[in-house]
Every structure is written in structure tokens, then in C-alpha cells.
Design brief:
The complex is a heterodimer of chains A (323) and B (330). Chain A is α/β, with parallel strands linked by helices and 323 residues long. Chain A has helices spanning 56-63, 86-93, 103-106, 113-124, 129-142, 159-171, 189-206, 217-223, 241-246, 251-259, 299-303; strands at 7-18, 28-40, 45-49, 71-76, 79-80, 96-99, 177-181, 209-214, 226-231, 234-240, 308-312, 315-318. In chain A, strand 7, helix 7 (189-206) and strand 8 form a beta-alpha-beta unit. The longest helix of chain A has 18 residues, at 189-206. Chain B has 330 residues and is an alpha/beta fold. In chain B, 31% of the residues lie in helices and 24% in strands. Chain B is built from twelve helices and twelve strands. In chain B, the strands form two sheets. An eight-stranded mixed beta sheet of chain B has the order 6-7-8-3-9-10-12-11, with helices on both faces. The mean pLDDT of chain B is 91. Chains A and B meet through helix 7, helix 8, helix 9 and helix 10 of A and helix 8, helix 9, helix 10 and helix 11 of B.
Chain lengths: 323, 330
């Protein structure tokens, strides 16, 4: 791979197999990621937005190889991580970490903050006890918490504090790439602002690359350099943040933006209200996957899946209207 | 006022836990006209849901309404006996919850649940039941209502489940619907559908709606009147334009400034320092005093009364007492 991209994802497909049921349903393969191509540049924040079931979380997990892809390649800093053996993968994983939406379910309730943050260090490094404690304290300071939190357990923390601990834990091994899966969605507005600020600050200090997954367009816009919009397992539009918000080209992106309530009573927008709901990924529509809800759907959309149409050097969308 | 449908006066609700009395609502007063839509907005623990549940008298022990009056259409709800209350709850005041999957009974079909409510409130019987149930599902925008009556809740998507909840709320022709975070569990495109439906019901049928939400965007786009809650009290109340264009309470200002907006991309967001006071803590003064950048000595000593800033716009803050525009410099 000679590309300049830091992370290069090629024709990635991921599937889940639904178990055969008690009442005689057959096991079914559900393709939640379909032919995803994506490059993430070093030091950027790539936002991924889309509704539930669009595959955004699976994309993050597949990049970290927490979900084995059915087909496709993932290159991480020149290294094909799909074919890595167990030992090399473990070494590689130090470079990439994941932060989840709900810190109370991702943090072990039986460990105190010290052990939570020390756990990855104990697994991957050979720090002595004094060094370890010092490192944990430094990490805690970095995420804006004082040493008095060391002996607390997750249930003694507020949502914002717990998410800070989750971040400290993710940063423990000096990773270069973080998948942030809805890290602010469980938080109140005022706390969300604190965590967003912290993420921006950590990125500057440690030259981190972020994949920021969220359904909250406001936060994604604030933090991302580029944004990928996903619908039913595919990326339908990818562009720099400003272009997505100012000149969205895919009808789904346009509808998504128009459906998001803005904190301005005089925005005077006409809402595009999409009809119906997202079809099941177990049985995606033929042709363009969005055609069942698209106001601009044409005959060709029902038959043929649209190709990637470049809008500008950095901006593309998959829609027949652009053809 | 003739047209007042609901008047909540100095409502106090506490939860008596092993750690002491947790004050969830610390004196809330507001009123609602017939057919009006009021937004109750605030962060986790501000008392917005407890207020909604108090109106329905759904506060269960260890929770207790310790003080206050709730007048609904002239009736003092807190003085009604439980059988009397049952004729109001679900009939004249209906409620829609955040998670429709949890609110619907998984072992009964949509038809069974919908008809049970109509029978209970004696709005229809016999063949009329089925006809009305079908009509209700059609009214809330569900396609093929005949077929959907026969399904179980898990066979419906989240948006469809919420529409069924709304149909159930409508079945007894209520005067007031309390919608507690009705779209929080839904995707944005579905959220837009449900909000549109609620606005349509309010406009076409004149049903008053209390919309409880933490989402300032939803409030801005759907409500005309807003009350901002903080630590169990209303800190500011007014028309939606007043609240968003002339936010006056330091908390309202802080909350709006903490929202990401296109102009601030990549920059540090404004943050409200500190955290919300615990419900265990008595608050003799303004609840926001510990986090406020404009705090005065008297803010900690006694609670500020509401100051009128406009026709409908009022704020509980000493910065405006006596009325002055020294703070309103922006």
C-alpha cells in the first residue's frame, strides 16, 4: 500500500449471523457493512454519522479488528491488520483504542479508578509500582481529574467524570488512533461541552487521529475535519465538514440535516420529513438503498446501485442525481 | 384567567431515601392555557420528569409531593381520591414516555392494549371499539392500520411504537398530553416525524401539550412557550424567542453557549464550571449560585423572586432586581 493515508479501508464488508431461533427461524446472514472504502489521514478527525443500524459502530470495531470482517482490507499505518497473527495484533492494538458511549457499562464496577487506568499498563508494560502509580496520576491530571479520584469506583463518579476516566484508560498506552463511539451521547449539554473540549485538547497534545462516531450532527460538525454519512451499511457521502453542512449533495444527507432540530426558533427552515423507516439490513432494497425513502427517486434508482460520483477533490457522494 | 387548563403552584416533591430527603422539585409554579404547547427543558436531575409525573400523580414511595397545588380545569388534583384521580389520569391527561418499548406491554397485541384503554375510559364499546381503534392508528399516521392492530409491539419499529403510544394517549380525547422525552430514543429522521405529529395534534385538535426534553433544538423548533429548569426550580420562563434570543438567566446563557455551533468549529466550547447541587443539599438561595459567574452575596442567602422582563418573559435572578439593563449588554 503506497497511499499516504494513515488508515486505509478497502471494500470492507462485515456480517452478523443471527442465531437460528427457538421457534424455527433459520440462521440469517445480515450484512451490516457493504463495500466500504475509506481513508483516514494522520492527525485528522473523521466524523461518522448515521442513524441506528447504519453500521457506524461496526465500522469502528472492524477497523480495530474487534469484529472480523467478512471481506476486505484494513491497513493501519502501512500494516495490513486483517492478516496479523495474535501476537502482532496485540502489539498493534496498543496504537489504537476505543471509547464507548456509556462509561458505566464499559468501566468494570468492581475496580477503582487506579486499577481501571492501570489495567492496560499492567497488561502491556512492565512498570514498577511507583512508576505505575505516577503514570496513572499523570493520566488522571491530563483528563482533568485530581488524585483524590484514585480510590473511587465507577458508581461514585458522575457521567462526565466516568467518561474522563474512560479516556484516561484509553490514553494509557499512548495510542495514536482513537475510535470514539458516541462518547458524549449519554451526557448533558454542559458536560458534553467539557468532554468535547478535552478531546480537542488531547488531540492537539498527543497528535491523535480520531474516528468520531455520533448521531449528533452538532457535535460532529464541531469536532470533525471530514464527515462520512452512512446509510444501511454504506457510506453515501464523504466531504470536509463545511461542505457537508453547507452543500450536502446526497438526498439522505440533506434530509438528515433538515431533520436535526436547531436551537434557533427563527431558523425558518423547511423541514424535509423522510417517510417511513430505515429498511432492515437483512433485506436491503435493490438498487440505491435509499430509494424507498428518497423524494427524488427515479426509475434507475430502483434498479441500479449508484457509483461514487466526485463532487470536488475532497467530496463525493453515491447518487444517480449527480451522474 | 378563563382559559387556564392547568395551574401548578409551588410544587415540592421529595424522595425520602436512606441518605436523607432528596428534593427533586423545589417549588415550581407555572400555568398552561388550553391548547397551548409548553416546553420544560433542563438537564438530568432538574426535576422536569418528576414535575410531569406529579401532575399525573404518579409519584410512588419513597417519593412524595410535600407541598403545593395542582389545579386542572378547576379541579385540585392533589385533593382527589384515587378513584376520582383515575377518571382524570389517562383520560383527560395522557402521558407519553421516552421508551415506547418499555411502556407497551410485550405480551398483548396493539389492538388488545388500545381497546383495553378505550373500554376502561368508556369511550367506545362493541363494534365501535374496533372501528375507533383502526381510526386512531390511521390518525397517528400508521399505514395499514387493520394489519397493525394484530401485531405485537416487538414487531414494530421504535417510531411506530411511539405512534401507537400516541394513539393510546389520544383514544380518550384528552385535554392535555404530557410527553416526557418522546423522541429521545428515536433517530433524527423519525424524531422529526413524531414531533410533526405532536404539533399537528396540538394545532388541529387543540390538545395542550407539555413537552419535556433536554434537547434545546427540539424546544426551539416545536414550542412557543418554554420553562428552563435547574435543580428543581424554574429559573427562566418565556416565549421561545425570548429564551433563545434574549436568554437572561446566567444558566440559560451558559446552556446555550455550551452548544456547538457552526461558527465555533474546532474551538473551545463554553463550559459551565462545577456541577449541579445534590438534591440532598438544602438551597436557601439561588440554586445556580455555586456556578454563577455573576454571583452576588444575596444570591446565596435567599431565593430570588421572578422578575418580569417582558409580557411573558420572567427570570428568577437578582441581577434583574430592581429592573435594570446593565447586564443586558449584548
Amino acid at each position: 500500500m503506497t497511499s499516504a493515508a494513515y488508515i486505509h479501508i478497502k471494500e470492507l464488508c462485515a456480517e452478523y449471523v443471527t442465531p437460528s431461533g427457538l421457534f424455527g427461524q433459520h440462521a440469517q446472514r445480515v450484512r451490516v457493512l457493504d463495500q466500504v472504502n475509506l481513508e483516514i489521514k494522520r492527525g485528522e478527525t473523521l466524523g461518522v454519522v448515521g442513524e441506528s443500524g447504519c453500521g457506524k459502530t461496526t465500522l469502528g470495531r472492524a477497523i480495530l479488528r474487534l469484529h472480523a470482517p467478512a471481506v476486505g482490507q484494513v491497513w493501519f499505518d502501512g500494516q495490513d491488520i486483517i492478516t496479523l497473527d495474535k501476537t502482532s495484533l496485540r502489539r498493534q492494538r496498543r496504537e489504537m483504542q476505543l471509547v464507548f458511549q456509556n462509561p458505566f457499562s464499559s468501566l468494570n464496577p468492581r475496580l477503582n479508578v487506579l486499577d481501571l487506568i492501570a489495567e492496560p499498563l499492567r497488561t502491556h508494560t512492565r512498570y514498577k509500582k511507583v512508576e505505575l502509580n505516577q503514570r496513572v496520576e499523570n493520566l488522571l491530571n491530563e483528563v482533568g481529574l485530581s488524585a483524590e479520584f484514585l480510590r473511587r469506583h465507577a458508581h461514585q463518579l458522575s457521567g462526565g467524570q466516568a467518561q474522563r476516566v474512560a479516556l484516561a484508560r484509553a490514553l494509557a498506552l499512548n495510542p495514536k488512533f482513537l475510535v470514539l463511539d458516541e462518547p458524549t451521547s449519554a451526557l448533558d449539554v454542559s458536560v458534553q461541552a467539557q468532554i468535547v473540549n478535552l478531546l480537542l485538547q488531547l488531540q492537539r497534545c498527543h497528535h491523535l487521529t480520531y474516528l468520531f462516531i455520533s448521531h449528533d450532527l452538532g457535535v460532529v460538525q464541531h469536532i470533525s475535519n471530514r464527515i462520512a454519512v452512512m446509510y444501511l451499511g454504506q457510506i453515501v457521502e464523504l466531504a470536509p465538514s463545511e461542505a457537508i453542512f453547507q452543500a450536502p449533495r446526497h438526498p439522505y444527507t440533506q434530509a438528515l440535516l433538515a431533520s436535526t432540530p436547531l436551537p434557533n426558533p427563527d431558523s425558518g427552515r423547511t423541514r424535509i420529513i423522510l417517510e417511513g423507516t430505515v429498511p432492515s439490513p437483512a433485506n436491503p432494497p435493490a438498487g440505491c438503498r435509499f430509494h424507498t425513502r428518497c423524494a427524488a427517486a427515479m426509475e434507475i434508482c430502483r434498479r441500479q446501485a449508484p457509483l461514487v460520483h466526485p463532487v470536488s477533490a475532497e467530496h463525493w457522494a453515491t447518487c444517480h442525481l449527480l451522474g | 384567567m378563563m382559559n387556564t387548563l392547568l395551574a401548578v403552584d409551588n410544587l415540592h416533591v421529595s424522595f425520602f431515601t436512606a441518605r436523607g430527603e432528596v428534593q427533586a422539585v423545589r417549588g415550581i409554579t407555572f400555568s398552561l392555557e388550553r391548547g397551548q404547547m409548553l416546553g420544560l427543558v433542563g438537564e438530568t436531575g432538574c426535576g422536569k420528569s418528576v414535575t410531569g409525573r406529579s401532575i399525573m400523580r404518579l409519584i410512588a414511595p419513597p417519593g412524595k409531593i410535600t407541598q403545593g397545588r395542582i389545579l386542572f380545569d378547576g379541579q385540585p388534583l392533589l385533593n382527589l381520591t384515587e378513584p376520582e384521580m383515575r377518571r382524570v389520569r389517562g383520560k383527560r391527561i395522557a402521558m407519553i414516555f421516552q421508551d415506547p418499548a418499555a411502556a407497551l406491554n410485550p405480551v398483548f397485541t396493539v389492538a388488545q392494549q388500545l381497546k383495553a384503554i378505550m373500554e376502561h375510559h368508556r369511550v367506545a364499546k362493541g363494534a365501535g371499539l374496533h372501528r375507533q381503534a383502526t381510526q386512531l392508528l390511521a390518525d397517528v399516521g400508521l399505514p395499514i392500520p387493520d394489519a397493525l392492530l394484530k401485531v405485537y409491539p416487538h414487531q414494530l419499529s421504535g417510531g411506530m411504537q411511539q405512534r401507537v403510544m400516541i394513539a393510546m394517549a389520544l383514544s380518550s380525547h384528552p385535554d392535555l398530553i404530557i410527553a416526557d422525552e418522546p423522541t429521545t430514543a428515536l433517530d433524527v429522521t423519525i424524531q422529526a416525524q413524531i414531533l410533526n405529529l405532536l404539533v399537528k395534534l396540538q394545532q388541529d385538535r387543540g390538545i395542550a401539550i407539555i413537552l419535556i426534553t433536554h434537547n434545546l433544538g427540539i424546544v426551539a423548533e416545536t414550542c412557543r412557550e418554554v420553562a428552563v429548569l435547574y435543580a428543581g426550580r424554574i429559573v427562566e420562563q418565556g416565549a421561545v424567542r425570548d429564551i433563545f434570543h434574549r436568554p437572561s438567566h446566567p444558566y440559560t446563557r451558559g446552556l446555550l453557549a455550551a452548544l456547538p455551533n457552526p461558527a465555533s468549529r474546532g474551538q473551545t466550547l463554553n463550559v459551565i464550571p462545577g456541577s449541579v447541587p445534590s438534591g440532598l443539599q438544602p438551597l436557601p438561595g439561588c440554586a445556580y449560585a455555586s456556578r454563577c459567574e455573576h454571583v452576588l452575596p444575596m444570591c446565596r442567602a435567599s431565593q430570588p423572586a421572578f422578575v418580569k422582563l417582558g409580557v411573558d418573559h420572567q427570570v428568577a435572578c437578582y441581577l434583574y432586581d430592581p429592573p435594570t439593563d446593565s447586564f443586558d449588554h449584548e
